[in-house]
């Protein structure tokens, strides 16, 4: 099975950048988030980050290579297959509330070959600007992705063929991220910065029986751990780290992203891993956990009173105080204004059907 190359990992990071702040990505590219789509089709709410899946990557890479070999640019591939056929053939079992999608792109030159990083950035931006592809990139129901960035001759062009296979199967959620040295100080992963060989261990807190889940970062720096909802102590170790770096993460019903940035200096200060930065947790994790508490106490909670407290500073009702105290550890990092904004984003998503089938997966070239 595949592991992502540095270019593949870079594409995953760009996809997740867009998903975690769709409005900012649209603004960066000078478009409206729903340009070319019906109003409100894509919510401004953060979308869960996608975890790398090797079967989806195998499917994407096989199709990208087939397109190069045959000089054919199409979602229809070998033996008349569609993306769903290829995903299943690669071993990605579609069970439960499943869905899939595919984006493809190519770019080439007949003169001096274009820098592959620059080509990939241009292709990624073009896919986001295209309405149908943007829907795939920002579909919140997806949890996993496999990317392929394959160079070769295409119609006599020196080309970079890109394929993105998106999927969701079963009920697992994922802790995912990337370890990297930010060598160019741009606060973002760049090919060549990945840190491989770092062990990532997630230990479930409050469990009667020890539950320790682990992965090791690949050569490009990425990792992914399938886990049940809960609060985990996450430890990064090995891979040249002078001492472990530890962070607490709460998984709800969506994926979470936790990156290890500039770990080469870890351990030079006081505390655990003081020289490294751990970043990337989305706002949705504490809010998801809070919503579980709200569901349990829903009959006692007055949302109008909560809104008045956030906006006007009126006293918080006792029922809300008790609920918040139950989730005190979860809510430490969430301020009132951000909480109100995120709750409104969740409300925006209410009523959206959560059932997709194979015929829904294919969206444009």
Describe the secondary structure blueprint for this structure.
Blueprint: H1 6-20, H2 22-28, E1 51-52, H3 54-70, H4 83-89, E2 99-109, H5 116-129, H6 131-137, E3 144-154, E4 157-168, E5 173-180, E6 199-204, E7 212-216, E8 222-227, E9 230-237, E10 245-251, E11 256-257, E12 259-261, E13 277-279, H7 284-296, H8 303-312, H9 318-326, H10 328-331, H11 336-349
Parallel strand pairs: 1-3, 5-11, 5-12
Antiparallel strand pairs: 2-4, 3-4, 5-8, 6-7, 6-9, 9-10, 12-13
Helix pairs in contact: 1-2, 1-5, 3-4
Structure description:
The strands form three sheets. Strands 5, 8, 11, 12 and 13 form a five-stranded mixed beta sheet that branches. A four-stranded mixed beta sheet has the order 1-3-4-2, sandwiched between helices. Strands 7-6-9-10 form a four-stranded antiparallel beta sheet. It contains eleven helices and 13 strands. The model is unreliable at 265-275, 281-286, 329-335 and 341-365 (pLDDT under 50). A hairpin with a 7-residue loop joins strand 9 and strand 10. It is of the alpha+beta class and 365 residues long. The chain has three domains: 6-170, CAP (Pathogenesis-related Protein p14a); 173-281, Carboxypeptidase-like, regulatory domain (Immunoglobulin-like, Sandwich), CATH 2.60.40.1120; 286-349, no CATH class.
* Helical coverage, percent range: 25-40%
**What name goes with the CATH superfamily of the largest domain?**
CAP
Residue stretches low in confidence (pLDDT < 50, at least 5 long) are 265-275, 281-286, 329-335, 341-365
Total separate domains: 3
Strand pairing plus helix content: what structural class?
alpha+beta
Radius of gyration: 21 Å
DSSP E strands, number: 13
Beta-strand fraction estimate:
15-25%
- The overall pLDDT average reads 83
| Secondary-structure element string | HHEHHEHHEEEEEEEEEEEHHHHH
CATH topology of the largest domain: Pathogenesis-related Protein p14a
- Our count of helices gives 11
CATH architecture of the largest domain: 3-Layer(aba) Sandwich
Which CATH class of the largest domain is shown? Alpha Beta
Taking the alpha carbons of the first and last residues, their distance comes to 26 Å
The main pleated sheet reads as: 5 strands, mixed
Shape: globular
């Amino acid at each position: 099975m595949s592991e992502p190359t540095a270019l593949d990992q870079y594409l995953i990071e760009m996809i997740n950048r867009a998903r975690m702040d769709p409005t900012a990505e649209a603004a960066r590219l000078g478009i409206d988030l729903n340009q070319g789509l019906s109003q409100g089709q894509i919510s401004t709410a953060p979308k869960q980050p996608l975890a790398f899946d090797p079967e989806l990557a195998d499917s994407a890479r096989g199709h990208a290579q087939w397109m190069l070999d045959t000089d054919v640019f199409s979602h229809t591939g070998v033996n008349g297959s569609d993306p769903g056929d290829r995903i299943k053939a690669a071993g990605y079992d579609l069970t439960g509330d499943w869905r899939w999608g595919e984006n493809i792109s190519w770019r080439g030159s007949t003169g001096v070959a274009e820098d592959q990083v620059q080509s990939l950035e241009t292709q990624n931006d073009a896919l986001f600007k295209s309405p149908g592809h943007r829907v795939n990139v920002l579909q919140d129901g997806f949890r996993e992705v496999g990317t392929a960035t394959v160079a070769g001759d295409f119609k006599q062009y020196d080309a970079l063929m890109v394929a993105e296979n998106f999927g969701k199967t079963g009920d697992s959620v994922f802790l995912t991220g990337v370890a990297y040295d930010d060598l160019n100080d741009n606060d973002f992963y760049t090919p060549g910065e990945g840190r491989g060989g770092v062990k990532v261990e997630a230990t479930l807190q409050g469990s009667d029986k020890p539950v320790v889940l682990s992965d090791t970062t690949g050569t490009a720096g990425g990792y992914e751990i399938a886990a049940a909802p809960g609060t985990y102590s996450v430890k990064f170790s090995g891979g040249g780290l002078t001492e472990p770096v530890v962070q607490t993460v709460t998984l709800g019903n969506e994926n979470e992203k936790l990156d290890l940035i500039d770990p080469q200096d870890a351990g030079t200060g006081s505390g655990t891993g003081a020289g490294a930065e751990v970043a990337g947790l989305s706002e949705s994790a504490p809010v998801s956990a809070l919503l579980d508490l709200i569901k349990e106490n829903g009959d006692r909670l007055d949302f109008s009173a909560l809104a008045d407290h956030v906006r006007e500073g009126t006293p918080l009702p006792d029922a809300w105080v008790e609920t918040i105290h139950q989730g005190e550890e979860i809510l430490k990092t969430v301020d009132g204004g951000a909480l109100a904004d995120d709750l409104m984003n969740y409300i925006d998503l209410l009523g959206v059907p959560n059932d997709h089938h194979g015929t829904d997966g294919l969206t444009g070239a």
